[in-house]
Fold this sequence. Notes:
The chain is α+β, with helices and mostly antiparallel strands. It is 39% helix and 19% strand. It has 10 helices and 10 strands. Strand 7 (171-178) and strand 8 (184-187) form a beta hairpin. Helix 1 packs across helix 10.
Amino acid sequence: xxAEVYSPNHIGNDAAIFNxxxxxxxxxxxxxNVYSETQFAAGAVQERIVFNxxxxxxxxxxxxxxxxxxxxVFNSGYGIENCMRERMTRLLRESGIPSPESLLVxxxxxxxxxxxxxxxxxxxxxxxxxxxxxxxxxxxxxHPEEAQAIVKEFSLRGISRAVINxxxxxxxxxxxxxxDTSFFYWFYPFETGHSKYGCxxxxxxxxxxxxxxxxxxxxxxxxxxxxxxxxxxxxxxxGADGKISVIDFNDFPSFAPCRKEAxxxxxxxxxxxxxxxx
Length: 278
């Protein structure tokens, strides 16, 4: 299971999808043993097939070691690591997946000259070295001076790297998917009150700009392939021109608005992969 510190404001939702998938596998005849991340890191897990929601760095390293040793792991420890902000930003940009213009910076540097050179005004400052744990790990800056202050605060908190995304106006959309299945779900979080840190209020009320839903699905699936994440979710902005830009991508999210169907599809995907491998 995911350590609670990595489920900010979603402890119950993360546990619910995890347990629902476990129950779905049990109904298909699987024996499923549940462990905490603490137990996992302590070496309690000996199984050769693992599905997980891990986020701690020691857990990720252990998952990677298990994979290298031939274990079957969902999601891959390498994929989970790829979803750390700086690595994710670099991989998405290098692969041509539409995403905001971004700067990767050290938090002990003065970023004002760079922001001014690139013409950044409103932007988002995000910790680059890990998954977000606190509300302050993702911050909206209304001007370059505020962005510099946030970067400095990151440094004081011991966060060495940051990603600065240029702000994009448009409709915020959240999506969920499972690789190699037909399952894909999207919605407007502003309209449903679905929130982790309240960041959706920055873009405000939904305009319902027209866009190609199939293109959104293709972009999400491609991002999952690039990051090596099979059970995924993310966020994107749809501009007034219908352009889709991925602003975040997550390994094994809560699937809260579509949990029942998602759990069934995730269990089916895992069981199918097991049968193909063994």
